[in-house]
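Data's thin. Show one?
=====
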Amino acid sequence: MKNNERLKGAIIVALGAISYGILATIVKYCNQQGFHTATLTFLQYVIGAVFLMVYPFLSRGKEMTKIAVTPKSKIKLIAFGLSMGVTSSLYYLSIQFIPVSMGIILLMQCIWMSVLLETLILKTKVEAVKVMSTILVIGGTLLATNIIFESAAINWWGILLGLGAALSYTITLFASSHIELKIPGVLRSKYLVMGGLIATVIFWNTDIICGMNSFSLLKWGLILGVFGTIIPPLLFTKGIPMTGIGLGGIIAAIEIPVSISSAAFILHESVTGWQWLGVVIIICSVIVANLKSVRTA
């Protein structure tokens, strides 16, 4: 029974990761159709925030309406949620200058950044396995971003934006795994997404209004909201307790090949064999980092 539950949880987490993985491709496709990133990001968070506010009142979530969340906890979650909006904004902005395949790899630098952040804030001991994982990530990144073999000029502004997104994503991951854990995941997600919405409005401000130039935006905003701020939080909060954090982290790495594959098929981005090798190395680093957690689960 336990194995069946872990398998079910693994499928749920994988679906959440796939949902995240197609976001950048959707945004870049919309950019090519003339839709502004500012408005797309804003609609993604508006739709997600509205759904997560309504969800607790639905039949299966009514018990959550009875859970009291203190003002202090709300403010704390919203404050950390600001990093979600910054992550999306920088990430979506970066892929205007670099391929989606490079953008997702830069975003995944959160793997070693998370290790560094936890070491600095929580004063955790630096384990050899985490050092090995970090080295693998950096080595895999050099291959996966094709920096070594790229003959054309590299857009360093896009790379800088991608690394900024990774740093912000690191803060989001820290908040998701350490902040106000006694509050149910869906309620935590609601306040984190609200913070993301606030950050998006601050980041893009008047560009959001200027980009409101077509009713078709609502369709794409709905798709981004569903796949970016509704499905993943619900699936991760349900699936990860069933798989454990270690196995869940490994499965979630499927986001990388999904993002690169969707960009290759839909946007016709070129991906070399060396880049795929880099992706494999990065995924191996995730497995190495979480292997201990899986064995003790």
Summary: The chain has one domain: 2-296. Residues 2-296 form one domain. Residues 36 and 211 are 5 Å apart (CA to CA). DSSP finds 14 helices and no strands in the chain.
